[in-house]
Design goal:
The protein has about 180 residues and is of the alpha+beta class. Helices cover about 20% and strands about 45% of the residues. It is globular and about 55 Å long. The chain starts with a strand and ends with a helix.
């Protein structure tokens, strides 16, 4: 597929929506709508058998959802992934990690968005005060044993695709690095 044109349709501090003219392999013309968002960091805070989650209101769903801490830098800034992970963990939970290890990459919605996520495992955790953004003021946090986390997925209490995929990356990471 070849891009033949591009125009910005909408922009705000978190995203840009654009419409691209395209030419397919057979020569036919078409359009593609793309949401450009900065890459994000998702952090899996792990302490023994416990996972630390955040719960917040997700406006597009009109629901509160449990998920792993995750986010982007403000104003679509490009921030080094490990720095962004440490920042998101501290902002949302107050936790500081002695060790942050990148365990994988996720594509949010590759059929419509350019956004990618880096997944980090956070260990050696020290508690502190969160420094949440305005949209996160009603955020709650909690520690959950893995068995409860998995039950929450099965019961559709955790439906965030990135959190569920990140947990799979954690399981694969642990399989490759036992002990």
């Amino acid at each position: 597929m070849q891009q033949t044109s591009s125009r910005e349709v909408y922009a705000n501090p978190w995203m840009v929506v654009r419409e691209d003219g395209i030419r397919r392999a057979d020569g036919s013309e078409g359009i593609y709508g793309v949401i450009d968002k900065p890459d994000y960091a998702l952090v899996i805070p792990l302490d023994g058998d416990r996972l630390h989650l955040v719960e917040q209101f997700r406006y597009p769903l009109d629901l509160r959802r449990w998920e792993f801490p995750q986010g982007t830098a403000p104003n679509r800034l490009d921030v080094e992934p490990t720095e962004l992970a440490a920042r998101e963990l501290r902002e949302e939970t107050g936790l500081r990690a002695a060790k942050l290890v990148e365990i994988g990459t996720l594509d949010v919605a590759p059929g419509m968005s350019s956004q990618r996520g880096r997944v980090f495992l956070a260990t050696g955790l020290t508690p502190g005060e969160p420094a949440r953004e305005l949209e996160e003021q009603d955020m709650r946090t909690g520690w959950f044993p893995r068995t409860e986390f998995e039950k929450m997925i099965s019961a559709a209490e955790i439906t965030d695709a990135q959190s569920i995929a990140a947990y799979t990356l954690l399981l694969l990471h642990e399989r490759r690095n036992p002990g």
